[in-house]
Specification:
By secondary structure, the protein is mostly helical. It is built from 11 helices and no strands. Helix 4 packs antiparallel against helix 5, helix 6 runs antiparallel to helix 7 and helix 10 packs antiparallel against helix 11.
Length: 336
């Protein structure tokens, strides 16, 4: 491979690895925003002017008065004074500003690489797609917030699931493209090799519904939910039960997490038996064990903010470690 071409690929990969890191931080901030109950503190959407925080007492009073008109204040946070409001405002403001920073960190190098004709083919398509998804994600974020500004002061679990799932899609696409440029593209991946990332993704999606319905606050025991492993409320809402019943949402998350743990342990054993042990499968195995244990403690202690954030951050690392392993073809499981 020509050295200048390789250097260009490395530069682009560093840019995309940086974007991936910024998205990881964004998911962390989003988790903290959700767990601190800060997500509905900013009741107006100012895509451009909203970059600056309130700088005067008059502006603070103005936005606090707007918040006082929201259902969350009138029904839940009516006790709040201005100082309490500033705390929850900080997390939501930080969340939105970080999203804008991701857009800028992506757009400026993108324009440069495009202008200098460093992007072409698959890389051009993927980077353009990533930028488009980042823009769409901003719209989805406000669409999600709007669902909690009506009579019921809570965001829709469906919109929250779409919002967080989109974050993982952007993260995965950025990270995978960076790996392609840094290590070279993967030519072929067997279906069996995809099973861990499939179950990890399903578990994450199930977790978004747990978060959206505060389902972690019911049945704070493990492995039983009440008198049995399957809760008595399971299936009580019919076809919509998985998406509307907090108890069922927690059960599905538990079940998928357990299946994912078993699947990855079996993969690890298979790698050992084939004498193909490597650091990527070790990191993935440690990540799933850590995530499972943290998930149990998060549940047992009724989702405290610190454990909740660590659990969400662990999900990100688990997702990325599975992609990292999937990108190493010479150590793949042979399905034949």
């Amino acid at each position: 491979m020509d050295s200048s071409f390789q250097n260009i690929n490395i530069r682009i990969s560093i840019w995309l690895f940086t974007i991936s890191f910024l998205i990881i931080v964004m998911i962390f901030i989003g988790g903290a925003t959700r767990l601190t109950g800060s997500g509905l503190s900013m009741v107006e959407w100012r895509p451009f002017l909203g970059f600056l925080p309130p700088l005067t007492d008059t502006e603070w009073i103005r936005i606090f008065e707007l918040y006082k008109l929201s259902p969350e204040f009138t029904q839940i946070n009516f006790w709040m004074g201005l100082s309490d409001f500033k705390f929850i405002f900080f997390w939501e403001y930080f969340h939105r500003v970080w999203g804008r920073l991701i857009g800028l960190f992506f757009l400026v190098p993108f324009i440069y690489f495009l202008y200098t004709k460093r992007l072409s083919g698959v890389t051009l398509f993927r980077t353009f797609l990533i930028f488009s998804l980042i823009c769409i994600q901003g719209i989805i974020g406000w669409w999600m917030v709007k669902s909690g500004l009506n009579e019921i002061p809570t965001v829709s679990q469906y919109r929250l699931s779409i919002h967080l799932s989109m974050a993982f899609i952007i993260l995965g696409l950025s990270f995978w493209t960076a790996l392609d440029l840094y290590e070279g593209p993967v030519k072929k991946i067997n279906f069996l090799d995809k099973i861990p990332i499939i179950f990890i993704s399903l578990t994450i999606i199930a977790g978004t519904f747990v978060s959206g319905m505060d389902a972690g606050l019911v049945y704070n025991s493990f492995p039983y939910m009440g008198e049995g492993i399957v809760p008595i409320e399971y299936g009580s809402l019919g076809i919509i039960d998985p998406f509307e019943n907090p108890v069922s949402a927690q059960f599905h998350h538990r079940l998928l997490a357990t299946l994912t743990l078993v699947i990855i342990i079996l993969y690890f054993i298979n790698y050992v038996l084939k004498n193909e042990i490597n650091q990527r499968i070790i990191i993935l195995s440690l990540a799933i064990i850590w995530q499972f244990i943290i998930g149990i403690f998060t549940l047992l202690y009724s989702v405290p903010i610190l454990l909740g954030v660590i659990h969400q951050f662990g999900g990100v690392l688990l997702f990325l470690s599975s992609l990292w392993l999937l990108h190493l073809p010479k150590f793949k499981y042979n399905s034949n």
